[in-house]
Please model this.
Amino acid sequence: MGSLAQKVSEVQKNDNASFLPESAEATSVLDLAQKFAGIEAVPAQLIYGRSTGLTAADEVTIADQLRAIKAELGAHLVDVPLMPERSTDGKSMQVTVLFSETDAQKNVEYVEWIRDHTGTADGLEAHVGGLGGILTDMMAVFGSIDGLLLGVTVGIIAVILLIVYRSPILPVVVLVGAGLAFALANGVVYLLARNDVITVSGQSQAILDVLVLGSATDYAMLLVSRFREELRRTESRYDAMRVALRASFEPILASGATVILGLLCLLVSDLASNKGLGPVGAIGIASSLLVSLTLLPAILVLLGRVAFWPVRPRFGSAPAEERGIWAKVSALVGRRARLVWIATAFLLLAGVAGLTQLKADGIPQTEGFTGHQDSVAAQELTNAHFPGGTGSPAEIVVRADKLDQALAVVRQTAGVAEAHVYTGPFPIPGAPPKVVDGLVRIDATLADAADSPAATAAVQRLRDGVHAIEGADAKVGGFTAINMDVQHTSQRDRNVIIPLVLGVIFLILMVLLRSIVAPLLLIATVVLSYLATLGISGFVFTDILDFPGADSSYPLFAFVFLVALGVDYNIFLMTRVREEAGKIGHQAGTLKGLAVTGGVITSAGVVLAATFAALAVLPLVFVVEIAFAVAFGVLLDTLLVRSLLVPALTVDLGRVVWWPGNLWRQSR
Model:
């Protein structure tokens, strides 16, 4: 799969139109748009500007550059004149460039050519924005996934493994396994996406890469830790691996199944981007499980104690866990269980208070970059000299006999700068409206940037106005409406999928722990941790990073990853607690389970948090926000919830935690 793994970027779909649900109003208009235009085109806005006003020489330069664009790229453009429109203040000109190619990668090349061959060194600005410019900038960001993101992630994991193991051999073994899981997952995703079985975006590919590398490393660390523990008790490395694999298999498999099923709940989403992330992430976790439970144990048992060189676990030696920091944490929990869980819960509730700061109602696409991309500069120049929605009109489709009434309503709507009847892809003054299946189209230029909250509000007013026209069968679409429908669908998905994920995780935990109370306890603590993470995220995004907000899908993505991954660490802890409680009693088993798993679970949490934090190298607000949420939330789960809250509650509640299972009836 290695050669295929490098091709995932070739099958990405990154425009919102690709993700619209079939039921959305904007989808109906989008389907009709091609009938009206008779062509399929991707628009880009080329805009020129000079702060002191365009000169006669500038106009000559612009005309020459437009001729050069036509000469060089004419075969890939819709055959219409490149007619520049001058701003009323005389400081800017803009022209719509329509690419006839449907291949996004080809359009990226054409936009980059235009950017390289426009403007001058003496102060004449030139930028390319609109849909074509935005997609080009996004493709450039996601093109760095296989280079920058992958390099940073692997580097972080290697450093952490060297610190944890203090061995040059084990990090190589773990990274080889993670690398094979990475190649397998990406190869399978490429084949499925190429054959239109799943949809993959740049965001889902980036998440896939860090998820595979992080989870494969986590599973490896758990197996290695138990193998090292058994090597101290058992002379034979083969016998030690038999015990270690038998003890690790169930929690690792349950952990992976929790994340896989949690991600597959995204299949009920109405958005193709969410539907795509579900199986993409599930394939990544399945690949990590496959490598961690087959190849890795074989390599470890062949190497034996040599794998841990120079600090080999000698047969009969005392485990470090019995005298380390986690033994002290365990003792503290045992002495002050109620105080520990009350104080920890109070801290988490304090974090929840920040939820009022979180604004998860969408991000304008031109504000979705953390850097100053060329498409952002183009939109800023457009906003300064033209109506913000120029080049991305709202498209209103109505019955032909209601045209005059609809046109009057559209022109009177607040937020609409101008409106005209659509006569064809090449406007001709005085031409009759184009009629398709008894319908006509009105194009409304919005006063504000097409991806701004103000434009979204204007489109909602347009819909309210034209829907009220009896018998008009009116629908409103276009760039702004597409974004609005995507955001609304994200909110619907959040309300449907979150309860579904909780139900799936509860069933898995109930089967694994043979209890009803323990799963409820674990889910409650992880949900509390999730809410605290969202609250702290709201504070960080608004008051520290000054982000424009968060995407509507942010709470859902954060929930799926944080709850599924947070439950992972509780699974690793509670399966060991259950094992020890059956031998030495409930309280003693809980404290021993915390002591012996504390180091490895903390290390695993740090690895996963660091790998997700690596996503922050991609200059996209949404990706940076997901990186922060998962990294911070995983650390919160690892260091606070799993280390203090869960074991303290387990000790304080007593054997009722295992009701109605056998451990509940145990006398100790």
Remarks:
- Residues 280 and 436 are 40 Å apart (CA to CA).
- The first strand starts at residue 42 and ends at 49.
